[in-house]
């Protein structure tokens, strides 16, 4: 039985983006032909979490509605370097708990974190969506692997735009940042584009 996960931000006893997390869980059950779903608000309430600070509520579940929860203290990581890794067959359209393929790609890389390239298009890191800065505007790849809750929220708020970001035009962007349920937009960690150690060379990939 497939296991799925939701990683939900809880800060000072408040749960964030609950509606979008619930929608994703509901869509997972519906896609696999299961009636009903699990109630995330009710699960959180039963945890009686009463500590302040930043936590990740990690919720693993299966389609038989078996649930495991962990409340983990969280600090946003600063990442030393990134590597573009090509994988044209990788699919992560549902938030599966099984991350073997992602772990394998990371182990083969020489950097602390990977950026997955699929059919020449920039997608996501192993744990987040991406935003890229051009001028004063932030763009997110329209070729994402997983349409994360923070990504959906920022598009809805019109704080970011979608764009086609490829190996050919990635160097048109000056900076990038990582977003997911735990990492907010415009947080303290914004990386210069050359933090990606294997950017395409200027001669081979001219600006479009």
Describe the protein in words:
With 208 residues, the chain is α+β, with helices and mostly antiparallel strands. 19% of the residues lie in helices and 31% in strands. The strands form 3 sheets. It has a 5-stranded mixed sheet with strand order 10-9-8-11-12. Strand 9 (137-141), helix 4 (149-156) and strand 10 form a beta-alpha-beta unit. The longest helix is centred in the first third of the chain and has 14 residues, at 18-31. The model is unreliable at 202-208 (pLDDT under 50).
Number of distinct beta strands: 12
Overall geometric form = globular
Give me the Rg, rounded.
Answer: 18 Å
**Overall pLDDT:** 93
Number of helices: 4
Question: How much helicity do the residues have?
Answer: 10-25%
Beta-strand percent range:
25-35%
Q: State the major sheet.
A: 5 strands, mixed
Low-confidence stretches: 202-208
Distance between the termini: 46 Å
Order of helices and strands: EEHHEEEHEEEEHEEE
Strand adjacency order, main sheet = 10-9-8-11-12
Structural class: alpha+beta
Task: Give the SSE map.
Elements: E1 3-11, E2 14-15, H1 18-31, H2 40-47, E3 54-62, E4 67-73, E5 82-86, H3 100-108, E6 113-118, E7 121-125, E8 129-134, E9 137-141, H4 149-156, E10 161-163, E11 175-179, E12 191-192
Parallel strand pairs: 5-6, 9-10
Antiparallel strand pairs: 1-2, 1-3, 3-4, 6-7, 8-9, 8-11, 11-12
């Amino acid at each position: 039985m497939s296991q799925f996960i939701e990683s939900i931000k809880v800060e000072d006893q408040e749960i964030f983006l609950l509606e979008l997390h619930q929608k994703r869980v509901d869509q997972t059950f519906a896609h696999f032909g299961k009636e009903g779903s699990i109630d995330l608000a009710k699960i959180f309430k039963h945890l009686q979490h009463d500590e302040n600070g930043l936590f990740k509520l990690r919720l693993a579940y299966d389609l038989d509605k078996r649930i495991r929860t962990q409340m983990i203290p969280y600090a946003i990581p600063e990442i030393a370097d990134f590597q573009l890794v090509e994988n044209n067959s990788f699919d992560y359209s549902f938030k599966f708990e099984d991350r073997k393929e992602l772990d394998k790609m990371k182990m083969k890389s020489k950097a602390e974190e990977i950026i997955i390239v699929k059919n020449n298009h920039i997608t996501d890191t192993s744990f987040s969506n991406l935003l890229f800065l051009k001028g004063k505007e932030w763009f997110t790849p329209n070729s994402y692997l997983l349409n994360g809750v923070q990504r959906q929220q920022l598009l809805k708020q019109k704080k970011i735009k979608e764009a086609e970001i490829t190996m050919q035009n990635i160097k048109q962007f000056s900076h990038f940042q990582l977003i997911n349920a735990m990492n907010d937009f415009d947080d303290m960690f914004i990386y210069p584009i050359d933090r990606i150690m294997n950017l395409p060379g200027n001669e081979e990939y001219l600006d479009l």
